[in-house]
Amino acid sequence: MAATPAEVAERATVISIMVRDDAQVTEVLTGTDGILSTARPGTVVAVHSTVEADTPARLAALAAEHDVHLIDAPVSGGGMGAASGTLALMVGGSDEAVELVREPFASFASLVAHLGPVGAGTRAKLARNLITFAAFAAVGEALALADAAGVDLALLGKVVRHSDQVTGGPGSVMLRTSAAALDPTDGLHDVFVHTRGLGEKDLQLALSLGQDLGVDLPVARLALEQLGAALGVPHQIPPT
């Protein structure tokens, strides 16, 4: 236990910061009783908070003036992953600093992905959370459609959680190494063309049901428009 961040830095050489936003991270690091006021040279400070893309590099420069390493290491996995020690960490920082934290990080994370220099972890986390919250928006729309159709929403939720656990959910299509369109000779091309065909068909069916029930489905319309590009294959709605 410690009363201030400065007291933490007096006792620890690997320090994790997990607060809400940029202002709080900056205060914990640079405030009057902040970590940098007492941190020893060689200390590694890991920022786990989700912050603005440029914040880690700015704070790393301030830390370097004290011979302190600062890395960004946002987490994914929620309270469940924290409780079980199976969080995923998206890390940006020097090779030296990242090696210093791998062992302590293993106490709460089962995946430590070193994505590049300082800032790379935060950029990855912003992309990762885009998936999460865009999917939540789709869930709200799906619930409205299902509710209007008289579907048991609790049981539908059980089905979605079960099938996502089996298939991997949205992450199951994150197999490309580039966001560019797939070359027709790529092994994924024909698979994703097939996936696009199924998806566009099913989205059209959902939109038709929504029209019949008077439920507006803007996320579904956007998904129908963007699905091909999202998979890296041409957009082609089958004839009705």
Task: Walk me through the topology.
Blueprint: H1 5-11, E1 14-17, H2 22-30, E2 44-47, H3 55-64, E3 69-72, E4 75-76, H4 78-84, E5 87-92, H5 95-105, E6 109-116, H6 120-148, H7 153-167, H8 189-213, H9 218-231
Parallel strand pairs: 1-2, 2-3, 5-6
Antiparallel strand pairs: 4-5
Write up what this structure looks like:
The protein has nine helices and six strands; from the N terminus they run H-E-H-E-H-E-E-H-E-H-E-H-H-H-H. With 240 residues, it is mostly helical. The strands form two sheets. Strands 1-2-3 form a three-stranded parallel β-sheet. Strand 5, helix 5 (95-105) and strand 6 (109-116) form a beta-alpha-beta unit. The longest helix is centred in the middle third of the chain and has 29 residues, at 120-148. The radius of gyration is 22 Å and the shape is elongated.
Fraction of residues in helix = 40-55%
The helix tally amounts to 9
Note the run of SSEs as H and E: HEHEHEEHEHEHHHH
**CATH fold-level assignment of the largest domain:** Rossmann fold
Determine Rg (CA atoms, Å).
22 Å
- Averaged pLDDT: 96
Largest sheet: 3 strands, parallel
Query: Spans with pLDDT under 50 lasting ≥5 residues?
Result: none
Number of strands: 6
* Proper CATH architecture of the largest domain: 3-Layer(aba) Sandwich
Name the shape in a single word.
Answer: elongated
Query: For the record, what is the CATH homologous superfamily label of the largest domain?
Result: NAD(P)-binding Rossmann-like Domain
Describe the oligomeric state of these chains in a short phrase: single chain
Strand content: 5-15%
Number of domains: 2
Q: Could you give the order of strands across the largest sheet?
A: 1-2-3
Structural class category: mainly alpha
User: How far apart are the termini?
Assistant: 66 Å
